[in-house]
Amino acid sequence: MGKSKRLNRDHAKKTQRPMVEDRVIAEHLTALLAPIITSQSRFFRELGLRDRILTLPLMVAAVLTLLWRDVPGVTELGRLLETEGFLWCKRTKVSQQALSQRFLTFPAILFQKIFHEILPQLKARWSARQNRPLPDSVQFTLSKFDKIWCADGSTLEALFRKLKSLESVNPGKLAGKMGVVIDLVTRLPVEIWFQENPRASDTRFEEDLLTLVSAHTLLLLDRGFYHFLFWQKLIDKEIHFITRIKINAAIEYQQVFTDGHALRDRLVKIGSGTKKTPILTLRLIEVRVGKVWRSYLTSVLDPEILPPYIVIDLYQKRWRIEDAFNTVKRLLGLSYLWTGSINGIKLQIWATWLFYAVLVDLGDAIADEISLPVDRISLEMIYRGLYYFHGASSRGEASDPVKYFARPDIQKCLAIVKRQRKPKLKLIVAPFRDRQRGSDQFFFHSSTQTPLTTCLQA
Asked: If pLDDT is split at 50, 70 and 90, which confidence band does 35 have?
């Protein structure tokens, strides 16, 4: 009996029926993007692109329609454009060949510029909302730092060889690697980078990160950025970080802040003193969860600035960038690449993250409407719920997606609000263990000795 062919679910055949366009959502996207597209029209002409049928506004509308209406391909997109139009574009007849060729050659830098121009608007909208609470650890950290950012890299999926342009490509060839920075506070993307080599280390994004990040920023890094010289450059620029320590790392203990049954907080030296691995003084924080000890490194040496449980909770929130990767690749289709050209891949990357930012903005508006942290809102269920909102809108039962998704019956039916898990650790905003009491209670290191026992979902 022969071996069964291994399936790649990201390359599974997509539905042949796109979602119906909703007027309210279309008007929202138009209001957000129309002024930005107009401002980029001059740059469009400077690139030598001619204002014929497939103009900048039409291409932006086409790419966004592919994403939010889940259009299965360029052929179906051409049918939509010819029979009904989409977003701000009226019905226009364009050959499938012309549309496909335009996707191969349309400059990705135009989407990159639109992406960067819309981010300040979305951040301003975030700042105007005051009802949704921030997590306690984030509020505390913002009193010490200007920004809290997560940085990570992610490898793109294998190219989809059913496209004619990829028939000569070897099976399993990966499309490249992207580096991403997410603002932990707003959940909005900050910057996206692309490397053609899919096996490139995350350290290839270090120089980009050093150029991007300013002083008084706290970075949450995974072990892909485990590079002592890079850490030293961050510290020299007054940029601090939290990361995980590698197993069997050679460390030298310098000072003990806390040494309890379930928590250890110590000042350590790490590194060999060579050019590539300078000796650094960092804080090593270890916490017992069940029978397992988890270890964290931070360049913030003073426990008064970042208490140990704040460090632990912040690093657990680093997983938000993994959630973002899952959303853009699995939900918004970045794992299903339209083209094999480098320009086409970049175009899809920028367009997908652009739509992701708009989806985050909608999720934050819903969180503000129901006064819940945005972490409790499911972006996936909002995206899937757009179909149900269109039905309610067409029946005259809803006119505002934020108020629609905030309704208690819709929250329950569509699972808009995530279930709250029981926290594994208490968030105790205190830097030192009370050594005189000899217990596992923690207090502010001050004359008042005020206990804090704020609980938070880990």
From this structure: confident
